[in-house]
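Inverse folding, one chain.
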């Protein structure tokens, strides 16, 4: 039977089904709970049960003191809910609370999205997952070949990480991905970095503007916002300046079909190769007269982002509600 969990002090809630650990269920609900190893070793997921019953489901090596046990402390990664619960637990609310990590991951899959963009799916070890906030980036390296990429998946699945790798002339890491990376090959991950993340506790609707593979961090933000169920509505505008630029439009249409509060517009640049945001902004203004009430996220090539940022500020979007990422 599902059990409800209320977290203090955030007042966030989530549901625990079956034998999921409290940590797994909380992450799946999009919450940035404190943790490290996910396997009972580090103690970083320590939290205090205020009321309700828990059940231990996994061995833990980390030893809680008698005083901690008497105060109700448990490890969230090795316990599940045996009743509805109230728990006192720390959650990250800013990027500064997430430490820099180095992880050796394996290639789970690599497949073309177009002839110029490859989907790279990495899987971390079960006991060394990447803690990050949606919209952040990492450095990836294979031997001496390294490059920075936005994470294109949701932190609610911290073991399976997706990246949209473009075939850029002279980029040795991309060349490795396009020419012979195989399942189970090793890729090192360093990060996360970046402040292109959802505003904590904001319930404003989200306006998301992507150009080409600027879609990668935007996808992560969308998936995280959906799991948090916090934003009133999500409005995605995706401009393509290259052939095949909307390389995951099927995902966007599926979101549109599944969710009443998700809206998607696909735009093709009038002049290909020109990442000018004017066309997108004209469409946004036509759809939404008042943009000051949105949290706005812009990601794409530098020219797109710089011009869009200036125009959005001029149109009344408060600077504190505008985040930009050059991809
Ligand atoms: S996350 Fe390390 S002990 Fe739970």
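Residues assigned per position:
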């Amino acid at each position: 039977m599902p059990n409800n969990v209320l977290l203090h002090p955030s007042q966030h809630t989530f549901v625990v089904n079956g034998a999921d650990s409290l940590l797994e269920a909380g992450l799946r609900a999009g919450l940035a709970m404190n943790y490290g190893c996910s396997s009972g070793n580090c103690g970083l997921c320590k939290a205090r049960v205020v009321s309700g019953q828990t059940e231990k489901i996994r061995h833990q090596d980390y030893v809680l003191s008698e005083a901690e046990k008497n105060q109700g402390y448990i490890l969230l990664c090795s316990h599940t809910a045996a009743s509805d619960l109230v728990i006192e637990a720390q959650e990250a609310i800013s990027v500064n609370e997430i430490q820099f990590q180095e992880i050796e991951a394996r290639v789970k899959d690599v497949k073309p999205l177009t002839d110029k963009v490859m989907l790279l799916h990495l899987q971390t070890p079960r006991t060394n997952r990447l803690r990050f906030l949606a919209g952040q980036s990492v450095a990836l390296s294979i031997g001496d070949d390294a490059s920075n990429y936005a994470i294109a998946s949701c932190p609610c699945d911290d073991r399976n990480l997706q990246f949209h790798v473009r075939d850029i002339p002279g980029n040795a890491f991309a060349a490795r991905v396009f020419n012979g990376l195989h399942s189970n090959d090793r890729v090192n991950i360093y990060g996360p970095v970046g402040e292109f993340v959802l505003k904590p506790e904001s319930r404003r609707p989200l306006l998301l503007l992507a150009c080409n593979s600027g879609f990668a961090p935007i996808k992560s933000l969308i998936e995280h916002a959906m799991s948090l169920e916090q934003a009133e509505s999500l409005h995605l505008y995706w401009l393509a300046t290259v052939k095949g630029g909307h390389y995951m439009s099927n995902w966007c249409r599926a979101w549109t079909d599944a969710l009443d509060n998700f809206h998607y517009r696909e735009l093709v640049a009038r002049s290909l190769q020109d990442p000018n945001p004017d066309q997108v902004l004209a469409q946004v203004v036509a759809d939404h007269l008042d943009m000051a009430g949105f949290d706005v996220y812009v990601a794409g090539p530098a020219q797109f982002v710089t011009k869009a940022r200036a125009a959005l500020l001029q149109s009344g979007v408060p600077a504190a509600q505008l985040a930009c990422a050059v991809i």
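The chain is about 20% helix and 30% strand. Residues 35-38, 40-45, 62, 75, 77 surround FE2/S2 (inorganic) cluster (CB under 6 Å).
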